Amino acid sequence: MPPTLSALLQAAAPHPLDGTVARWLPVLVLLPLLGAVVNGAVALVRRPSSARHPLVTLVGPGVLLAAFALALQLFAAMRGAGTSLTAPFLVGGDVPWIRAGGLTLSFALQLDQLSMVMVLVITGVGSLIHLYSVGYMRDDAGYARYFAYLNLFVACMLVLVLGASYPLLFVGWEGVGLASYLLIGFWFTDPANARAGQKAFVVNRIGDAGFLAAMALLWSSAGTLDFAGVPTWLAAQGNAPVVTAVALLLLLACAGKSAQLPLYLWLPDAMAGPTPVSALIHAATMVTAGVYLVARSGALFAAAPVASLAVAAVGALTALYAATIALRQWDIKRVLAYSTVSQLGYMFIGVGVGAYTAGVFHLVTHAFFKALLFLGAGSVIHAMHHAYHHAHREDDPQDLRNMGGLGRHLPITATMMTVATLAIAGVPPLAGFFSKDEILASTLARAHGTPLASASLLGIPGSVVLQGVYAVGLITALLTAVYMTRMLVYAFFGANRSGEEARAALHEGSPIMVAPVVVLGVLTLAGGWLNLPALLPLGPVGVLDQWLAPVTGAASRQLGGAAHLPHDTEVILVGLAVAVALLGMGLGVWLTRHPVLPKAQAPEDRSLLARAYDADRWAERFVVAPVRRLAERVLADAVERGIDGAASASGRGVVAAARAAGRRLQDGDVGRYTWWLAGGAVVLVAILVVG
Amino acid sequence: MMASDLLRVLAPELLLVAGAMVLLLASVWHPQGQAPEGAEGAERTAAMARGGMVLCALVGLVVTIAWGDGVGGSADGRLAADGFRFTLDLVLLGAAALGLALVEVDHGRFRGYGPEVPALMLLALSGMMVLAAARDLLFVFLGIELMSLAVYVLAGVQRRSARGTEAAIKYFLLGSIASAFLLYGIALLYGATGSTRLGDIARWVAEHPAGGGLFPAGLGLLLVGLAFKVAAAPFHVWTPDVYEGAPPPVTAFMATGVKAAAFATLARTLLEAFPGAVPLWHPALWWLAVLTMVTGNVLALAQRRVVRMLAYSSIAHAGYLLVAVVSASSAGAAAVAFYLVAYTLATMGTFAVLVVARPSDDRPIEIADLAGLWLVRPGLASALAVFLLAFMGMPLVGGAGFFAKWLVLEAALQASSPQRVLAVILALTSFVSAGYYLAVIGTMFLRPRPDQAPVVRVPALAGGVVLTCAVMLLALGLYPSPLITLARRATVVTEQGASARSAPTIPPAAGWRAAVAR
Amino acid sequence: MITESLVVSALLFAIGVVGVLTRRNAIILFMCVELMLNAVNLSFVALARLHGVAGHVFVVMVMTIAAAEAAVGLALVISVFRHFGTVDLPSLRSLRE
Amino acid sequence: MRETLLALQVGAWLLPAMVLWPVVAAALVRAVGRDPGTEEVPAGWRDARALTVGALAVEVLLGAALWILFDPAQSGWQARVDLPWIPELGAALSLGVDGLSLPLVVMAVTVVPLVLLGAWNNVRTRTPAFGALLLLLTSGVVGALVALDLLAFYVAWELILVPMYFLVGVWALAGESRVALRYVLFTLIGSLLMLVAILALWSAGGGTSFHLDHLLAVPLPPRTQLWLFGAFFAAFAVKSALVPFHSWFPPAQAAAPTVVGVVLGFKVGGYALLRFAIPLFPAAALQPTVRVAILGLAVVTVLYGALLAMAQGELRRVVAYSSISHLGFIMLGGFALTPEAVSGAVVAMVHSGLASAVLLLVAGVLEDRTGTTELGAFGGLASAAPLLSMALVLGMLSTVALPGTLGFVGEFLVLMGSYAQAPALTLTATVGVVLAAVYGLRPLQQLLFGTRSPLVAHGVPDLTRREAGVLTALVVALLWLGVAPAPVLDRMQGAVRQVVEGARFGPNALPAIPTVSETP
Amino acid sequence: MTGFLAFQFYLFALLAVASALLFVTRKAPVPAALWLVNVMFSLAGLYVMLDAPFVGAVQVLVYAGAIMVVFVFVVMLLNLGRDGVSDLRAAGPRVAAGGIGVALLAAVLATMGPRLPAPPAAPATDNVVTPVAASLFTDYLVAFELTSVALLVAVVGAVLLAKKRGTPS
């Protein structure tokens, strides 16, 4: 039996972080939780809470900033500990949660380099978005409720990344799902919004069921659910099928949470929530939980190359698929949503091919530029909404066809959005270029002579799969540049299509909304320096890689070995990537050369891509409707009523039969009664006489 | 033959018959005048009934004393004096006393009973008590006839009631046919074994384990006669009509007394005379029990009239009791005794409620007549619920009814050849019985009281009967130990076991003349 | 002769049963019962030759009881006739399911 | 605290008091209580509802004392009392608790008064009788949970039945009193068979004692065990509403007054399986075919209940079917028979009681306010009645087993513990987790969200203080136990181990326990 | 059994069975009753053959003489012979009844088995009453008393039942 966490705690040598600020790790989680409680209380007590409550404004973003500050302290402490940090720092292993039979779970939190990166992203980007929200949600009736949910989300997200065991991670995992559900349906008076939240929760639950199953498998096979116990088990288990099974089930979970095929359906609908929510939850943090989980379970996936290939394949397919859809979306948030799905696919490719650093790197840079894009889109929507409100018009403030030339009215936003677009398109030296390039390079690097390459997925050799993935990744990069440029052009350039009256009212948002956007813009510009490739001598090489090495290094090596591309090849690849990005942007501009009509005048776009391949309808027809029919028609109407009816019918039948029999037997004619007597006597005597 | 000995054995019966005759005389003492309404001499009926109750108490005392004295059976082995007899005597006396009380209550409402009625009930009771003690098929026949003749009359005693008269003639005709079967059975057994005494028959059976001759036919016909009296299907056909047509107090008396006496004699006969012939009669009785349980319970489901429903229910209970009998053990006898106590209490209580709640015209009481009874008479409704739950065999709320079923099941499962299938059938048919008992309870409790429903008045005596039955049932349900002890003492002591005093044996076949000459 | 008597007795009893099953008139039906009782009596008398005088005693008792039954039964028949104006059994059907 | 109780010898009378006090109190309530609905005189302290709650509060105190008195370190019976009852049959009032029954007893005695308090105006007619019957019912439930003597258990078991019949029948929603009859008939058929089985078992044990400890040692051939187990199982499966013996349950719970519906949902049947059926007849319960069949039924129950809950248009029926779905998990855990799974099953029983209480209370409040609980009639409650909505959301989240709630603890343990025993079935059961999300969120969607329906626009007052207090207490319990279930779990480990090991290695166990093969 | 005795026995037996058959098949009550009386007389004859002259005498006196007379009396009293309604059930039931009768007969006869040995003929004696009486008043005293109680019940009951009705309700 692998060592349990508590045993590890007792046995382990003193940890370098002992006695540092790290012991306050639980506070990191409790702070936003406290914020959620306070804001929730305000929301429940003060109603109607039309006015924003100063306490909420203070507490909501306040706890996040405090958490961010603490996170920086933790980071500093870890930096201080330097290379001696080889094992995660554990807190709370002695706080029991579930103890039954041989299963012992505690509220142990663990801090290691991977968690730290996630914590910084969550609290950092989270803080910015909280601040932005103060402006964005200023006039909303559910101001306090909003911050309660948002704080709750951060708390759950932190549990997710800090939990030291799968079940605790699962607490955060479902917790963020709940927060997401609540925030998507935040404006619940529109049933569509609430339905979108429900859809998100249910689709996520499919993945969660996989997670539960994975844990069940793991527990029954390994006897542990702690991260710390897994390597020991793997060492004993080798490449047994059960490892692959666990990994594949975890992939299912990740596909749900990170909106990969085929469970991505919920994410576009999730845009029903307030835009900052989309930025934080559905772009920067929650949806990357799947990537985090794969990275966290690196050892497991490393021992199951097939599962890793599957991760990469799923990622690649999703990336391409979503990118094509994004080409023809008109709703600005939907463009970004599909883009997110696509970029998550990239991250999956990264962690799938064992380039955990690359995956996490892209996760971080994506958090920067996608949050920026969403917040920028939020500013645009905010402005459009106000403008239409001002003009007393009921029109779609999110539709690209209603925009155009907004750069003149929202110059800062337009600038920042352009930066972000360049980043996501992969134009050097912006953040996205480095992370994306690293993923693609790693993929190709592992296509030969690695365990991944020699494994096979559904009969296809791993090397072929990886080459395919690379190709798909490259095509996707092209498409990404195309659709992002298209979006940018339609929104900010050309002639304005918002209408005279509305145009006059278009203006930049309040400083508190602009400032975070600018900060994110700066991060987008500089994010690439986190992990510079050796190829480009711009600064220290592979900082993030070295940082994460204690966590993912071993797994990464196990899958990919020390695979490195030749220098020349790398140069060619970089060139190719830049070329593709530029080509894509050019294509994007070319595509948008014709002016479009405002939404109200434009014919409905019925192209397959605009309809997102009708995936929702297919899912409705082949999954939802059959289940519903099964439940309502077959089970409720037929089976249940059948069981019910059989019970009461048999009762009624017996009574009716009794009544009929009674009428015949006891018809009152005593002469006929004698027959029973005589007949009975004959039978009885016969029984005795015959034997 | 020692007369004093016989007097000791028959003291309760003698006292009872003597008392009954005194009451009879008293009832005709006054010149019979035509009362303005009701039966002749109706004004004396209540007093007679009370006298009868006192007499029952006295006889009960005598029974207790006789039992305590350890009186043995009669010297000739024709009358038993064992625990079974005395327990059954007490049950029968209780049933008669409560029945008399019901007669008085009903008489108080309808004034339909002549002053001879209590005396007739007591005479019927004497027949029943003879049955409890009978160890000779002759006494079985005579006891049954004595009891039946009185009950035939009682069923039709309300001469203004056409329904009562119809019930009486139906009962009479079917009863006399059954008697003829019984008698033929006795004759054939006599022919086969040479005697009508149970002990002699048992000896003969022991000597002829293969049976043979007239024996099986005789046993079969005997069982037909007894099965008729206990109302076992398919010999139950009289029960619904007669129960329904007879005046309710008489029905109550019939349902308890007649049934108890018939079971007493059935159990004793089978256990004393035919223990060696179990393989012979077991299948027949087994099927009889099954058929009775199923028929009674299923047909009761269809009833809307309460008494008719109770008639089927009494058939069902006969089935349960037959299960105890089928087990052919002393545990079975104990179960019969216990069951009869619980059953008598519940039946009497139920009929007490029906007597006060029945419509004032001659219309039979329907379940719907009880609608919402809980709202106007919560105590009465609750008591009836207790009685019905006792019939169902629910523990605690059904009082001793549960342990009655328990002991029956115990007897069945602990028999030398465990009657598992029978036990399961018993359980399942009890389940069916819930359907109709709960229909009544549901009507009382879950339905509103109709506006035009008459006010139910509860005379003190009726209240007393209801209360007594309910309290005793509940108390025995909570703490059944005394009754279990009593029932376990109510074992049948076979003649061989009991009479060391060796009765003179009947002269052998050819030598009867010699005996006469002596 | 005993066996023959028993056969005759059985015959008479069976005839009585058939009568019971086929007659509609209460009195006749009752007479059939009397026939059955008589048949039994024949058995008793025959068997008394085998087993002793007890059979005769039985017969005397049965006759007495039969007389008693007759008294009650005929009184009932009269009472029924007064109520229903008939003693045809299929007509007496006020008590039924 | 514990020392004081020990010094006072509380254990010697605690359990009899818990069983008998409600009976006494029932008589008192019936005699003294006044019906505020019908009498002109203000009832004051004699308000039967207040008296009932007071009497039940005493029961809560006793329950608390029991909890404190319980020594988690010990396994085996605690607070055991043996009073003579029917020496002729060998029956005694043997009462005792162990870790299996303790949580359920404490949960039961706590939830009933809370719900009664929360559903204060739910029953407005004939309250003295209602209170008395409710107290009798409580006595039956507690008795069934603490009885160690099989005869006493049977008596208590049936004592649940009769008051329940009246409580459901008399106070049912209009026109629904028939469901009471159906409830009794369904339950009775099983329990009568069990009666026969108890008798047979008792006979096999020499007819001297009904004590569980005595009967556990009675050697039984596997075939006999099979029959007896079948009878016990029939009783418990019907009572706990296992598919396909469940059809009495949803209508009954939907028609019953709130507090009665809650008690109806107590999984006493599931408890009895773990307490009696499995330990007494291990060779039957673990016989591969039987086990696969029951585990299969359990999984069917999980899915069937969930699917049916999805298809309901009325809140209480959703709750009822979700309860059935939970029962599937309980059965799965119980028959997987690993320490984790059994612990999970017990936790799930506790959870089922608490969660049903929350949801049925909310349904009762809606019924009080608007006269209906049809989902379609509502909409937009979230803004109209935020407290109520909050309670509903939290109760529902526990029902769908969100981590951090008690619902998760039970389900998680069941799934973890069952996999090794029945992999395919356990994996199938996880589908129930997905369906739970659907059936759990659907009512929220319809009731709370969207625009306000005319009914809601007409005005739905939010929770009163009393309702809010009760619901807060229950919801906090769900969340608190979800985060800190250890005190409960620790106390049950000894008993769970006994059940598991007894069934595997006890005198009547099969020689070798095969795991359920992968044949679906 | 000597030939003549046997002849007589079979004669009476035949007479009894034939009369019984006629009794059962007569439609009118009075002839039926008379055929029954005939059965009883035949039986009395048989009793005498079977060494029971006392019982035979009682049979004639009580049964034929008393009981059957009352029957006929009641039939006349109620004027039952006159309505044309058949007293017999339909043909189908009659056949079925015959079947049941035959079945019962078969069941009983099946147990008759081998011919029972006839005991030695009783020595001729005049005292035909003493043995019965002795038995009746010693061994069967209680039974005898019971029959008297039964008669009492019958008397009371008959009076009670046959009295004119009280004022009809």
Gist?
The complex is a heteropentamer of chains A (691), B (518), C (97), D (520) and E (169). Chain B is mainly alpha-helical and 518 residues long.
Provide a descriptive summary of the structure in words.
The complex is a heteropentamer of chains A (691), B (518), C (97), D (520) and E (169). In chain A, 70% of the residues lie in helices and 3% in strands. Chain A is built from 26 helices and six strands. In chain A, a hairpin with a 2-residue loop joins strand 2 and strand 3. In chain A, helix 12 packs parallel to helix 15. Chain A starts with a helix and ends with a helix. The model of chain A has no long low-confidence stretch (mean pLDDT 88). By secondary structure, chain B is mainly alpha-helical. Chain B is globular. In chain B, helix 6 packs across helix 9 and helix 13 packs antiparallel against helix 16. Chain B has 21 helices and no strands. Chain E is mainly alpha-helical and 169 residues long. The longest helix of chain E is centred in the middle third of the chain and has 25 residues. Chains in contact: A-B, A-C, A-D, A-E, B-C, B-D, B-E, C-E. Chains C and E meet through helix 1, helix 2 and helix 3 of C and helix 1, helix 2, helix 3, helix 4 and helix 5 of E.
- Please estimate the helix content of chain A: over 70%
Gap between N and C termini of chain B, in Å? 14 Å
Which overall shape of chain A is indicated by the principal axes computed on the Cα atoms? Answer: globular
Main β sheet profile of chain B: none
Low-confidence stretches of chain B: 496-518
The mean pLDDT of chain B is 88
Which band does the percent of strand residues of chain B land in? under 5%
Number of strands of chain A: 6
- Shape verdict of chain B: globular
Task: Give the overall pLDDT of chain A as a whole number.
Answer: 88
Tally of helical segments of chain B:
21
Question: How big is the Rg of chain B?
Answer: 22 Å
Strand count, sense and closure of the main sheet of chain A? 2 strands, antiparallel
- C-alpha Rg of chain A (nearest Å): 30 Å
Strand content of chain A: under 5%
Low-confidence region ranges of chain A: none
Strand order of the largest sheet of chain A: 1-4
Task: Give the arrangement of secondary structure elements.
The complex is a heteropentamer of chains A (691), B (518), C (97), D (520) and E (169).
Chain A: H1 5-11, H2 25-45, H3 54-81, E1 89-91, E2 96-100, E3 103-106, E4 109-111, H4 113-136, H5 143-162, H6 166-184, H7 191-222, H8 229-237, H9 241-257, H10 266-269, H11 275-284, H12 289-296, H13 298-302, H14 305-326, H15 332-352, H16 356-390, H17 411-425, H18 431-445, H19 451-454, E5 456-457, E6 460-461, H20 462-492, H21 500-505, H22 511-526, H23 543-560, H24 567-591, H25 615-665, H26 670-690
Antiparallel strand pairs in A: 1-4, 2-3, 5-6
Chain B: H1 3-27, H2 42-69, H3 83-110, H4 116-133, H5 137-155, H6 162-193, H7 198-207, H8 215-230, H9 238-245, H10 248-273, H11 278-300, H12 306-326, H13 330-357, H14 373-376, H15 378-392, H16 400-414, H17 420-446, H18 460-478, H19 481-489, H20 495-498, H21 512-517
Chain D: H1 2-7, H2 14-32, H3 48-69, E1 78-86, E2 91-97, H4 101-118, H5 127-146, H6 150-170, H7 178-204, H8 212-216, H9 222-239, H10 249-255, H11 258-264, H12 268-280, H13 282-285, H14 288-310, H15 315-336, H16 339-370, H17 381-384, H18 386-399, H19 406-419, H20 423-448, H21 454-457, H22 465-483, H23 486-505
Antiparallel strand pairs in D: 1-2
Helix pairs in contact in D: 2-3, 2-5, 3-4, 3-5, 4-5, 4-11, 4-16, 4-22, 5-6, 6-7, 7-9, 7-10, 9-12, 10-11, 10-15, 11-16, 12-15, 12-16, 12-23, 14-15, 14-20, 15-16, 15-19, 15-20, 16-18, 16-19, 16-22, 16-23, 18-20, 18-22, 19-22
